[in-house]
Amino acid sequence: MTRLTYCLLCLSYLVCSSLNAASLTVTITDTQGVALGDAVVELTPITATELPPTTPQHYEMRQQDRIFSPFVLAVPQGAQVDFPNLDRTRHHVYSFSEAKQFELKLYVGKTESPILFDQPGLVAIGCNIHDYMQAFIYVAKSPYFASSDEKGLANITDLSAGEYSVTLWHPWQRAETAPTTMMINKEIDAVTLTLDVDRQDKPSSPPGGFGVNLNASSHVGQHAK
Description:
It is a single chain. The protein is mainly beta. The chain contains one helix and 17 strands. β4 (about 60-65) and β5 (about 65-70) form a beta hairpin. The termini are far apart.
């Protein structure tokens, strides 16, 4: 096989893969039909023997105005997460969750190194100094996942046609939901999923300005950097 033929075959494969890939917009609501933010949807191919690898990325869950941001962070298995403290007051970040146990003792600013989340599952995050501070990291085994915004919208791209197992999670859900199945093809680009939740108030900044760093970066923590 000549080099030119090989290159053309590779290009043909990439074009076909792109044409066969689908994007899915998921709208997540509660049982009353109200948009539900901070929900995570994960799609796992049922027939695939191996999941495609994910590109290693760094994510952030920052501490600012004495709350964690974002409240829910969805990351792929193997992701590294930084926990910058942008407040003037020190925080003591920890988790006792089975999927990841760690402790970042009292500090301000950046930690020496990020935390590796190498096991899939749910990780509850807290602060040993401020009990009201809480957040969650959802570590997805599948590369096909997304968290919903305040409008209840989550977008998943590069999906191959086929049958998927659908897992839906939210910190306020009344009970653990059993995975459902869904067929993905070029004809299906949007779907609405419903989750039964007990709505609560998310942790909010205490009144007053003590501990707030007015020069803190405005970088959004839920995006990979």
